[in-house]
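Q: I have 175 residues here and want to know how they pack in 3D. Can you give me a structure?
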Amino acid sequence: MIDLPAQVESLLFLRGDSVSIAWLAKTLKVHESKITLALEELEKNLSVRGVRLVRSLESAALVTAKEMSPIIEDIRKKETEEELSKAALEVLSIVIYAGGASKKEIDYVRGVNSQISLRNLAIRGLIQKKEGERGTYEPTVDLIRFLGLESLSELPRYEELRKGMVESLREKANE
């Protein structure tokens, strides 16, 4: 059996965001006190690694170690200065014309994992996670400005394409 700290670590990595201790306990079918102990052990194990555990009373998340800040900032700077890749443009088109889409929906349309493109577009401020809808991305005001538009409705056949795409995405993603 895989030890509990390793299971917790994998779930934190998978989610990529802050995760509640209650959710971890429910998912791993253990008491919250065991999750707390596993988090303490994980925190010790990660103290000399490039990733750290950050905790509040009710949640935890994996983050990069502060010592890695220079290299992380250098990579982010390069990513925002480069032109958008073909993959990023595909993801952006899906988010724009769907009026917002989940990673699962985007991955379905593209047929590949879109996580890196989503992250790069979010870093640039062109998309953001939708309020109250975990994992759903939407276009930002900065994107509209970047495209030189006043509204996304100025895009060609926006409403017609959006309606058809949203229906198709929802149907296919829920199959």
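Q: Anything worth noting?
A: The chain has a mean pLDDT of 87. The chain is about 55% helix and 15% strand.
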